[in-house]
UniProtKB/TrEMBL annotation:
It comes from Herbiconiux oxytropis. One of its GO terms (cellular component) is cytosol. SUPFAM superfamilies: PurM C-terminal domain-like, PurM N-terminal domain-like. Its EC number is 6.3.3.1. Keywords: ATP-binding, Cytoplasm, Ligase, Nucleotide-binding, Purine biosynthesis. The lineage of its organism: Bacteria, Bacillati, Actinomycetota, Actinomycetes, Micrococcales. Belongs to the AIR synthase family. Coiled coil: none annotated. Pathway: Purine metabolism; IMP biosynthesis via de novo pathway; 5-amino-1-(5-phospho-D-ribosyl)imidazole from N(2)-formyl-N(1)-(5-phospho-D-ribosyl)glycinamide: step 2/2. The keyword Repeat does not apply. Residues 57-162 form the PurM-like N-terminal domain. It is found in: Cytoplasm. This is Phosphoribosylformylglycinamidine cyclo-ligase. Pfam families: AIRS, AIRS_C. The gene is purM.
Amino acid sequence: MSNSYAAAGVDTEAGDRAVELMKAAVQRTHGPEVLGGVGGFAGLFDASALTGYKHPLLATSTDGVGTKIAIAQALDKHDTIGQDLVGMVVDDIVVVGAKPLFMTDYIACGRVVPERIATIVAGIARACSETGTALVGGETAEHPGVMAPDDYDVAGAAVGAVEADAVLGAERVRDGDVVLALESSGLHSNGFSLVRKILADAGLGYADESADLGGVVGEALLEPTRLYTGPLVRVLGVPALSGAIHSLSHVTGGGIAANLARVLPRGSWVEVDRSTWSPAPVFRVLSSLAGSTLESAEGTWNLGVGFFAVVDAGAAARVTAAITAEGIRTWQVGTVSTAPRSASSLAADGFEQGAKGVDGGAVRLVSTYAS
């Protein structure tokens, strides 16, 4: 019996080939701040860039893509998952007003297929370039006997920086502030356990055609997560809009109301007007297959709103125009109120207050979605 690593199911040569295939894509994300190139034990980033800040704060985030990976694996289509990963990680950093600096990734798999790993990382690198983030390192780990040969999972972490006096958050929000919605590209990377159950119950396969979805079911579901970081960093840097944006919210797990409530101050409340937008076909088709309403999915899917911006009322039109000019449809969905309301009355009226340990504001959705 051989006691070699290869006999145990780990192919180190395949790992080396994967690194060679991905190297060029990773290097394209490197500016002069990145030292040492690809393949070191640790990525190096020149922090002297922070000397230009008066009081820099570091912001960090980590996340994965969740069970959306199962659809990519089923279709053997792996070129969009990387963008999903970057969106889930880096778009959390910009919520506090930070500019991303660098990111690392981690891919666990049952078997290293160099071309597949390189395709995933190329997607990560493209999205990093689009968001101004250096991909400074990563790890591919082969887990034979723990994961099936063609299974994999991805995760990542990123670091950004923001001036201490420019941090966005609930403490900046005021009575009368306007809540803007930024359009999503689809499901993004949340709620796919529900998506997969709906399709399984309906007997619909990922490779099946759907006229309602405009093509192959799985390909429609793999629409990559919209990246908000680049546009928002640029808008935050516009001198004429300095201080206009008070807080931002990334609509991910927990859905619409809960994620907005996290970036509002306690004692404030917002009614989000559903009639201001029409959820995309993917949401309507899935809800129809499930025999449920769009409203019942508001705590799971973004339903067309990937981000919220809470802004000064006097600057709302200019902020809307600036974000729209960046290619993201943006519209007003509500107004912040601090008019006194008891917690019991808010709960009785269907408001959600705070989320994920944050004792924030209260939010409920009202009216009906536009057709």
